[in-house]
């Protein structure tokens, strides 16, 4: 693409510059956009497992749970109204991501992040003050709009600001903040469950104003990316920003590549139509399959239903929330492992190792549940078996957290050329939210009917996605974002979709 140009023999350019404190701080601030996503993932499952919340808003579920303590363990939480409360956020995020694409492309990345923070803030206030299911759903929809804008803009911002050699680690900062948000929510849920009276769940939800305020204030002080500044006609400001983030005045070559890419962007009237052209098919497949498979790992079964799941499996109220804290801690620590490893071992290695580890743990979990509850769902687990199950779930969560969790956002955000980057990221976010919505809406129903076989169901998708990565995903480690087409050009399958001429910029060739 025109953002990086191809040099002799297809080599990747090495732009001048160093890693600066300015770029590190900017990326750290932007990455806090993951806090709102993570906090919501963590808090929603904990709140829906609290008796007072269920009694106030979902009394049918509460009474069924109380009356069926010795009956089918798989079906006690099965309620479409309850799952609608959780999943409404994701369908709202899906729809919001398309509006976020326009804002990100035409108004800048930081404006999208700001809109996301403000909308999430309003949704939090409505949810915390809710007195009926309508207010709950309205608040969740606004939370979804906020998350949709943040998830669309933050990965793009991080990929554009980060130097190539640290792009993986800095981009995973988004996922790290997501895991911090999940862990914080789990800890808060554990604490608020001990509050006497009926206000504990409100405190859990209301404290979401803290991550919302962090990202809102952060968006105000964030600098915009050079790519975004150039695309909006601020070339001189982009030059100064590039000098600041690269720590050198020798930025002319990189600036010129970005200007050429921007000119190509301006020549494209409809990036949504352009993204369907054959030479963008490799990237389009990434935007569709990576977020789809990320959700079909079954991770959200653990993340936003962890307390409900553990309670279903026989853990007590307090133990179920503490178990969620344990998995949240593992999630955070394993994400740090990914930050350390991603630019050293590469994206593909982590994808493959994580897939194999998830597959093994899921199969064993399914076998254990089958032995304990059978098809009837009636039975109990011994304390030692429950602890073993918790350990296996932690093994599964760790595998996801250093592979498909962060890389599911990193890889799509770095493979799109500038002219279709905002549209590509919107597809990534919308596909992610679509499948998150489907999994969230169907999980409790599927657990009731597929029983322990649900884990074998997700394991089958882990097999498919691991094969997809092995055969169809090139390694993108250390490749400058404006030279990414070279990774596709060398791939045994996708190279047939790319133009042959390597003497001019890819984006300009694609317009020919």
TrEMBL record:
Keyword presence, Transcription regulation: no
Domain of life the protein comes from: Eukaryota
Localization (cell): Membrane
Gene Ontology cellular component terms for the protein in this record: membrane
Transmembrane portions of the chain: 19-39, 87-104, 111-130, 170-188, 200-222, 284-308, 320-342, 349-369, 389-411, 423-446, 452-473
Keyword list, A-Z: Membrane, Sugar transport, Symport, Transmembrane, Transmembrane helix, Transport
Membrane topology: Multi-pass membrane protein
GO molecular function, one term: monosaccharide transmembrane transporter activity
Main location: membrane
Pfam family name, one: Sugar_tr
Domain Major facilitator superfamily (MFS) profile: 26-477
Protein family according to the UniProt entry: Belongs to the major facilitator superfamily. Sugar transporter (TC 2.A.1.1) family.
Name of the molecule in the record: Sugar transport protein MST6-like
